[in-house]
Every structure is written in structure tokens, then in C-alpha cells.
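Propose amino acids for all 329 sites.
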């Protein structure tokens, strides 16, 4: 429903923050219709610690975008603004976004980035969007960004493909240890990779149907806080997605040697009785999700692997939010 046009206040800086999320039941592939709809449902956890902070001001000329203080021509940001302007009256904006973690390297910087951007624009331009509308607008820029509007455990599925919060961040407080194994941007962006997989992998139809069942089971395991079952399911969804990627033509291999070593170490720790499981997105970083009491042991084991540059730990975090609206002098 189009909203009444509202002009932004020219003298205000609006600051919003959002965190990345990592999917435990993955999405990979898009529906064949406009609006950037995922082809599969997904289930994620929103992290804290890793943060995108985005400031929005009115621009004097055209739109300007800075990422980590560098001016950028980012097609996805331009497309996001263009899509918002088809629905709302938004003046030229100066956007300054900063991540406290590596960008475009499989740490979901686009999820936190677009969730923070949509949230900041909503407040700056007084659009008064609901969380569902924020999620729908974020999804159009990046499928996983729809989930970072919410905190804790988050689901995204039909019929409307906006995310919803399943459990708040304090209800089942898991910890995620992230092993950084490379800091450069990935070679094949997610959207391109998804297009290649849908067009070429012989496994794609099975991926779509089986992920619907994974999603149903994932919701049940989260609602019953069944760690062991969630661990098996999340690793299965992750390996199935990477099998799909690898079976595409050209084959998409987002891992490096340290990624595989981390996976093996996490499996060994779990076989030894530690409540921990791994997941890996479209990049070489490994996320080890565990009960908080074993996080130090997990971090130590991952940090000792050759090729692991550093580890970071995050608990479950909140959804995207406005931090401040500051009037300029
Ligand atoms: O948010 P996108 O459209 O760049 O896709 C992200 C896809 C994965 O991170 C690999 C899986 C997921 O569900 O987040």
C-alpha cells in the first residue's frame, strides 16, 4: 500500500544498527518473479558483536554512499534506493555504512547492511513502516537481510516471505564462535551463484523440496530447544547447500583448506560430547554454534587450526534498530 509522501528533515542525521544472521536451514535460489523472493524457506539466528552501523543524512546533490569511509558506487544500494522510491517519497541521501567485520566474505555483511539501511531510511524519512514491511523491503535488496530485521531465532517462509521472530535472543542463548579463514571478498556473489545453481545443478529440484521439510523440522527443534536434533539438521542443510554449489557448472567452491579442517574439528568435538555444530555460508568462514559453557573450548580448538586467522564469539543479538536521530548544528 503506497504511503503518503513525507519529506525528510534536512538537518537530521539518523543512525541505525543491525547484525548479521546465519542460517541454520539455508536458502539458496530465488523464485522466478520480481521482488527477490527466495525459492526456499529459511531459519536463522541473529548474532550480536558483529555490527553494521549506518548513518543517513539528506544529500545536497544526488545520492552518496560510503562504506567504511570509502566512497562506493554500489549497484545493490542504488537498486535498493530505486525500489524504495517506487513506493515512498525519499529525497537524495548521503549514506555512511561501517562494518566492524570483513565485508562480503561470507559473514552476511549484506544482511546486516541492508537491514540497517532500510531501518535508517524508515526513521529518517518518517515512513513508519511495520517490522513486516521493513523485512519485505530489506528482502528486495538481499534475501537474508529480511531476517536481520529481527533478533534471536528467525524464520522466513511463504506465503508473504517476510521474516518473523520465533524466539527472542534471551530465550535460548546459544553462542556462535566464528573462525575467520580469509578476509578477501568472495569471487562469486550469492545472487550470481544462486542463478548458476538453479540453472545447472542436477540436485536443484531435490534441494528445493527437501529444504521445505528441513524448515518444518528446524522450527520444531528450535521451539523445543532440542540442541542435538538442531545440530544434525543444521549441518545437513549446510552440507547439502554446499553439495548443490559444488555440483553447479561451473562448480562453486566457497571453502578453503582451513574451512574443511574446522568442520572436521567441530565434528570431533561433538563426537566427544560437546554441544557444538558447524555451519558455513557463501564464503570460507566457519561458524560453530554451541552452548555458551563450551564456547571457550571451541574457540581454542578452532584458533589452533593452521589457516584460521582469528576467532570471534557472538551471542544471539537483537534485530535492526534506530540508535539516534541527531539534529545538526
Ligand atoms: O542474502 P543473500 O541473497 O545474499 O543470500 C544468502 C544465502 C546464504 O547466506 C548462503 C544462506 C542463507 O540462507 O543465508
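Proposal:
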Amino acid at each position: 500500500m503506497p504511503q503518503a509522501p513525507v519529506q525528510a528533515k534536512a538537518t537530521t542525521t539518523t543512525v541505525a544498527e543491525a547484525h548479521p544472521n546465519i542460517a541454520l536451514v539455508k536458502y539458496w535460489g530465488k523464485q522466478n518473479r520480481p521482488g527477490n523472493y527466495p525459492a526456499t524457506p529459511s531459519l536463522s539466528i541473529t548474532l550480536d558483536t558483529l555490527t553494521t552501523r549506518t548513518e543517513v543524512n539528506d544529500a545536497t546533490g544526488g545520492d552518496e554512499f560510503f562504506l567504511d569511509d570509502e566512497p562506493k558506487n554500489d549497484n545493490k544500494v542504488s537498486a535498493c534506493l530505486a525500489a524504495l522510491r517506487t513506493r515512498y517519497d525519499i529525497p537524495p541521501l548521503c549514506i555512511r555504512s561501517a562494518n566492524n567485520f570483513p565485508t562480503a566474505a561470507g559473514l552476511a555483511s549484506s544482511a546486516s547492511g541492508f537491514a540497517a539501511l532500510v531501518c535508517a531510511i524508515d526513521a529518517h524519512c518518517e515512513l513508519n513502516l511495520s517490522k513486516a514491511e521493513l523485512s519485505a523491503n530489506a528482502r528486495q535488496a538481499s534475501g537474508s537481510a529480511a531476517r536481520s530485521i529481527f533478533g534471536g531465532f528467525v524464520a522466513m517462509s511463504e506465503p508473504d516471505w517476510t521474516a518473523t521472530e520465533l524466539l527472542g535472543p534471551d530465550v535460548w542463548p546459544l553462542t556462535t564462535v566464528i573462525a575467520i579463514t580469509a578476509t578477501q571478498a568472495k569471487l562469486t556473489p550469492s545472487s550470481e551463484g544462486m542463478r548458476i545453481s538453479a540453472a545447472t545443478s542436477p540436485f536443484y529440484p531435490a534441494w528445493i523440496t527437501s529444504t521445505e521439510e528441513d524448515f518444518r523440522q528446524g522450527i520444531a527443534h528450535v521451539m523445543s530447544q532440542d540442541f542435538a536434533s538442531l545440530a544434525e539438521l543444521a549441518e545437513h542443510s549446510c552440507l547439502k547447500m554446499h553439495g548443490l554449489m559444488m555440483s553447479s557448472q561451473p562448480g562453486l567452491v566457497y571453502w578453503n583448506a582451513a574451512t574443511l579442517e574446522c568442520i572436521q574439528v567441530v565434528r570431533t568435538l561433538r563426537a566427544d560430547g560437546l554441544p557444538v555444530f558447524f555451519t558455513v555460508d557463501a564464503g570460507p568462514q566457519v561458524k560453530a554454534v554451541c552452548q555458551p559453557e563450551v564456547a571457550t573450548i571451541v574457540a581454542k580448538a578452532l584458533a589452533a587450526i593452521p589457516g584460521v586467522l582469528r576467532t570471534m564469539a557472538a551471542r544471539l543479538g537483537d534485530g535492526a534498530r534506530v540508535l539516534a536521530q541527531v539534529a545538526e548544528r
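The first helix runs from residue 75 to 85. The helical segments are 75-85, 109-124, 131-141, 190-200, 204-223, 227-246, 257-271, 295-303.
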